[in-house]
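Milestone M4 deliverable, item 7.
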Amino acid sequence: MKKSTLLLNNVYLKPSQIHKFRGFIGNLFKHHDLIHNHDLKTGKPIYRYPLIQFKLIDDMPAIIAITDRAVSIFSEIFMKLDKIIIEDTVIPVFEKDLKVEEVEFGYSDEIFMYEFASPWIGLNQKNYKKYNDASNDEKNEMLKRVMTGNILSMAKYLDCWLSGDQKIKIDHKLKEVKVNLKGKSMTAFHGIFKTNFLIPDYLGIGKSVSRGFGAVRRVI
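Output delivered:
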């Protein structure tokens, strides 16, 4: 799978500003629905795994694109992006690093360890109450099921299909953290997990991955 990473050197944003960074880029390049994931004619949300995601990598803002289609529009962003405007503050972009690479993605016979580089939002309002009322063992199993579903959903949207005998394995060591999403406090998770699925660095799983949540980084 093709992946490109655009890193804005010497620009520093807070995690809480990533959604505003995404909003600025989405408005600047509104003719590309892959950036903002809204239908260009109706304005309605397009429900799919985001092919363009906004992150903080080593405290610097970054944009990640996956698949040939998403990577192909990066040259336009790279050429035109000379500033970003966050909360009425104009931030010049003097230096940009663009990296394009082929990465492995999909089911594997090996087990890999990942850490969450940003909080993973795996629960929604519906299953949070069930999680909150569960025992510790039940919570662990529930998070395994949710994470498996997140990975399978990502794989489906990226046209990666598992055969009947290929099962996702998950083991994790996570702790709860509180995050603010769209003005609401939510329970998210930090920590490490192991799985037999290859995920390129800094791709996200779970909710709001286009805003930087759930970004994973391979450890082993």
